[in-house]
Design a protein that fits this description.
about 375 residues; Dehydroquinate synthase-like, alpha domain; two-stranded antiparallel sheet; 11 strands
């Protein structure tokens, strides 16, 4: 790999959706140019609402605010709770009230400035407020920059499961400044790297190889190394979204690799297990199932396990009984007609397949991995 191959791509990646296509800008130091780039792309507005958290605003808010105000944009700020607490119907209702109070109208834009939870909540509210207003995503976590910040899926949670109340609402633009990631705790970097590894397994062996060779830089939040993996991840997800925007053809479903088990672990742990950590554990389970189905080899599973361990993931299974995990999986929105569907890898960088997996094989796999 060339020395400069992980430098940021100067031109944005464009998610091709016809008239609703949108650019995804990824580079270190981008936040100071957000106002200029928005005005170049969306000229007919003067007012925006930034939805963020106290912590994000305290650390990064000034840079974004100055970028917008120097272009004459009238900025309002709406604060929401941190993390998954933001993704509730009550928080969504309060945010709608704030937008009404601020006078946000159809000609305004709403900016999601935060991690995946802020993006999910803000996207959902933008999709239903006045029957839909323009949304811009400015993700501040690796997980959101590499995955959830694009694609248009929005949601809040329900007591019976994650993301059960939601809609599709594509952003007008996405801005991912990898310089923002150096303030994240290592646990948050790891959470995002789980999704980045996922992209490498399902679609991009070059990305997987890069992660193997740059674990130290990535964990230490080197902005150029992160810009490279975010750009590769955006290209992978963006291409799948363009083919299957509303997740109705099965093409986009491959992005759920590691998520069937992962979501169950998040729910059972009451969200104490971070999303990327849960996905990492889920990828191992899916790879072991693939071995049983003779679709991949133990060598691929062990290569994946070595990489996740080198990045710092704790792959010791949480002590939930396999039958508990299976019961939660049956409630997952990815379940169909009572069957538990898995994205099954077929090799590093090779297209996965989607299969219904029997409870017997699933419980057997979980037990062999040490669950329960």
């Amino acid at each position: 790999m060339k020395k400069n191959e992980h430098s940021p791509v100067p031109q944005p990646y464009v998610v091709e959706l016809g008239e609703r296509s949108y650019p995804v800008h990824v580079s270190p130091g981008l936040i100071g140019n957000v106002g200029t780039l928005i005005k170049e792309h969306i000229s007919s507005f003067e007012k925006c609402a930034i939805v963020t958290t106290d912590l994000i605003w305290e650390v990064h808010g000034r840079s974004l605010l100055e970028s917008l105000e120097k272009k004459g944009i009238n900025v309002m700020k709406a604060l929401v709770p941190d993390g998954e607490e933001a993704k509730s119907w009550s928080v969504a209702e309060k945010l709608i009230g704030d937008l009404l109070e601020y006078g946000i109208d159809k000609q305004s834009i709403v900016i999601a400035f935060g991690g995946g939870a802020v993006g999910d909540l803000t996207g959902f509210v933008a999709s239903i407020y006045l029957r839909g207003v323009s949304l811009i995503q400015v993700p501040t976590t690796l997980l959101a920059q590499a995955d959830s910040g694009l694609g248009g899926k929005t949601a809040v949670n329900h007591p019976k499961g994650k993301n059960l109340i939601g809609s599709f609402h594509q952003p007008s633009m996405v801005f991912s400044d990898t310089n923002l990631l150096h303030t994240l705790p290592r646990k948050e970097i790891l959470s995002g790297l789980g999704e980045v590894v996922k992209h490498g397994v399902i679609a991009d062996q070059t990305l997987f190889n890069f992660i193997e060779g740059n674990t130290g830089k990535l964990v230490d939040a080197d902005p150029d190394a992160l810009a490279y993996v975010v750009n590769r991840s955006v290209a992978i997800k963006g291409a799948l979204v363009a083919l299957d925007e509303r997740d109705s053809r099965g093409v986009r479903a491959v992005l759920n690799y590691g998520h069937t088990t992962g979501h169950a672990l998040e729910i059972l742990s009451k969200l104490e297990i971070k999303h990327g950590e849960a996905v990492a554990l889920g990828m191992i389970v899916a790879s072991r199932i693939s071995e049983s189905l003779r679709l991949t080899t133990s060598a691929d599973t062990e290569r994946l396990r070595r990489l996740l361990t080198a990045l710092g993931f704790d792959l010791k299974p949480p002590q939930f009984a396999p039958i508990e995990i299976v019961e939660v999986m049956h409630r997952d929105k990815k379940a169909m007609k009572g069957s538990i569907r898995f994205v099954i890898p077929t090799g590093i960088g090779s297209p996965p397949v989607i299969r219904a997996v029997s409870e017997h094989l699933l419980i057997q796999t979980l037990e062999s991995e040490g669950y329960g």
